[in-house]
Write a structure and sequence with these properties.
Number of domains: 4
Helix content: 10-25%
Oligomer: single chain
Shape: elongated
């Protein structure tokens, strides 16, 4: 047998072939070994060589010393899994890891270390020295080939996975380097913490997160281990390159939660509604890295800081309602940004009720001219509550930054949560049987613009106005079934002339030439019911002075449908002041006014203020 050099002993600190303890690498010890050999104890040295080869896979016994790490893990159980059952049994050599994850276990005589693995059981309450003040809250297991015991880590777990799948040690290490995006010369026995190899440490942190989710405290069989590797591989290269791996870990963890695609912009119903000076469109020529179509967004410097676009698949700029919970409310999307550090905002709200709370989350891009997956965790939003319906999504490039005019691309908008059941977007309500000529608003529409907040062709905007003098008690609100205004008015302050609510057409006007009746829904407060009147004003698109007016008495406090014949209206301010001529003009605005003369001043809600309110609901029809 060829004699080993001093360096061969010096570079193999795993086993002390003379004393059954970690080898000393000092020269005095090596000289002692040489002296023993020179005195004719060659047979003893041959036995020692056999023991050394045990650590490299031959039969024998030895003491295995190393470190358990993601960060160094203290308080974990580690054993030689002699029977390969994925558990540290009472009969197997076992230790508890100490400071810096240190451990020592001794293999029984005759153990073929090349055929077994070290198994680490990391329990809840163990300490990762990366975060020493925060004990671990999720148990998981790690492995390493027993023939290379210096380090047991998430990285060596991948090596063991490939060995269990039939590869040799060298083949398994090569494949693990490829899987994890590690350099071709990466040494899995290297203590990457001691060597300050931050990139490898980052990959280990990400892989540990995946192991905790995919394997946990269960028996790490080959199926589970391969599933964990499959889940980790898409994030390995990004983790290796990250200066801050925390977001990559969040993405990896979120990707393992139940998820579905909200939009990928290749849907035939995908609709983009830009607002406040931003531009947006669905394109087929997005940068390489995604398939199909994508969203292209841009915000010039002239746009409002909150300029962006609402993305939708259905009626009223909606998507399917997101199944949020108090602990799972994440949305991810792929983003291609022209610069690092651009602020991307994401907003979720109710497409049919803007009185419900809406939430926004901002995340900065970390790549320029490259795709990255960005995660928006709405559980971190101020005051977040999952109560309500969230079926409207808006995206803001360069959110509250001055727009640069650069192109941002968005794709694969996904919901990540504990309960992921995709629901359909809203559909346009079917009108009740009617011979209507114009349906301004359906019964089920909210009383305010649910699309963009401003007038667009075919849609409408709403608002309210009032006297500005002397109000002591003013009130108004937008609700799912009506828009309301009015309330406390002085009996003596005549400057308080009244108030009004309007609905404005978003295009060139409603055509009513064939209509004979005007239907609408109004409500009021109990004190006004049966007393107060509302002045109706139908304003032409020709000019604001050309209009038709009439009045109606509010018979009930609850929303009530009223029908007014158009011939009952008085036409004023037009070239020809007849209803026949007026109907040939398009209608720009509908007004509902409660004037002072039509209010009630009998019952007061306050010694000097009298309640007079008005609500305008759906079901506005010309027929």
């Amino acid at each position: 047998m060829k004699a080993l050099s001093e360096n061969a002993f010096k570079n193999h600190p795993t086993i002390d072939i003379f004393k059954g303890r970690p080898m000393k690498s000092d020269i005095a010890d090596l000289r002692l070994q040489k002296v023993l050999h020179n005195r004719g104890v060659g047979l003893g040295l041959s036995a020692a060589l056999l023991s050394l080869l045990t650590a490299c896979g031959a039969g024998g016994s030895g003491t295995l010393t190393g470190n358990l790490m993601d960060g160094y893990i203290k308080g974990a159980k580690i054993c030689i899994d002699l029977n390969g059952n994925g558990s540290c049994d009472a009969s197997e050599p076992t230790a508890t890891t100490g400071t810096k994850g240190s451990f020592t276990v001794t293999a029984p005589t005759g153990t073929d270390l090349s055929a077994v693995h070290l198994l680490a059981e990391v329990p809840v309450g163990a300490v990762d020295e990366d975060t020493p003040n925060t004990p671990l809250t999720k148990a998981y297991k790690m492995m390493a080939p027993a023939s290379t015991p210096l380090v047991v880590s998430p990285l060596t777990t991948v090596v063991s996975t490939h060995i269990k799948d039939g590869k040799t040690l060298s083949q398994a290490q090569a494949q693990a380097r490829t899987d994890l995006g590690l350099p071709a010369d990466h040494d899995f026995s290297k203590d990457y913490i001691a060597k300050s190899d931050t990139a490898a440490h980052n990959v280990a942190k990400m892989m540990a997160t995946v192991l905790a989710e995919k394997v946990g405290s269960a028996t790490p069989d080959l199926t589970q281990l391969k599933a964990a590797l499959t889940a980790a591989k898409p994030f390995a290269a990004e983790a290796y390159a990250a200066s801050d791996v925390s977001n990559v870990i969040k993405l990896a963890k979120a990707s393992m939660a139940a998820n579905y695609t909200i939009m990928d912009f290749s849907e035939s119903t995908a609709t983009i509604t830009p607002f406040e000076g931003a531009s947006g469109e669905v394109v087929s020529n997005a940068p390489t890295g995604v398939s199909g179509k994508a969203l292209k967004l841009s915000k010039p410097s002239s746009a409002q800081p909150w300029g962006g676009a609402t993305v939708s698949l259905g009626y009223s700029t909606s998507v399917g309602a997101l199944p949020l919970s108090s602990t799972a409310a994440m949305v991810s999307m792929k983003v291609y940004s022209p610069r690092v550090g651009a602020v991307i905002g994401l907003k979720i709200e109710n497409a049919s009720d803007n009185t419900q709370a809406a939430y926004e989350v901002k995340v900065n891009t970390t790549k320029a001219d490259a795709w990255e997956t960005m995660l928006f965790d709405f559980t971190t939003a101020t005051g977040f509550s999952s109560a309500g319906t969230f079926n409207k999504i808006s995206i803001f490039p360069e959110f509250f930054e001055t727009g640069t005019g650069g192109n941002f691309y968005i794709d694969e908008l996904k919901f990540l949560g504990a309960s992921a059941q995709k629901s359909a977007a809203l559909t346009a309500p079917v009108a009740a049987p009617s011979n209507y000529i114009v349906r301004v608003k359906t019964d089920s529409e909210p009383a305010y613009d649910t699309a963009t907040g401003k007038a667009l062709p075919g849609l409408y905007a709403t608002g309210r106005y009032s006297a500005s003098s002397g109000e002591a008690w003013w009130w108004g609100g937008d609700f799912a079934d009506q828009i309301q205004s009015g309330y406390g008015f002085s009996k003596t302050n005549t400057a308080q002339w009244g108030f009004g609510i309007f609905i404005k057409n978003g295009g060139d006007g409603w055509a009513i030439s064939s209509a004979t009746n005007y239907k609408f829904s109004l409500g009021t407060n109990g004190e006004c019911a049966g007393v107060c009147k509302v002045t109706l004003a139908i304003v032409s698109a020709v000019n604001a002075d050309c209009k038709a007016t009439a009045s109606v008495t509010l018979t009930n406090a609850a929303l009530t449908s009223y029908t007014k014949a158009l011939d009952d209206f008085t036409v004023v301010g037009c070239t020809t002041n007849t209803m026949a001529a007026f109907k040939q003009l398009k209608i720009a605005e509908l007004h509902y006014q409660m004037l002072r003369a039509d209010m009630q001043f009998t019952t007061s809600g306050d010694p000097s203020l009298y309640p007079n309110g008005l609500g305008v609901g759906g079901g506005i029809i010309f027929e």
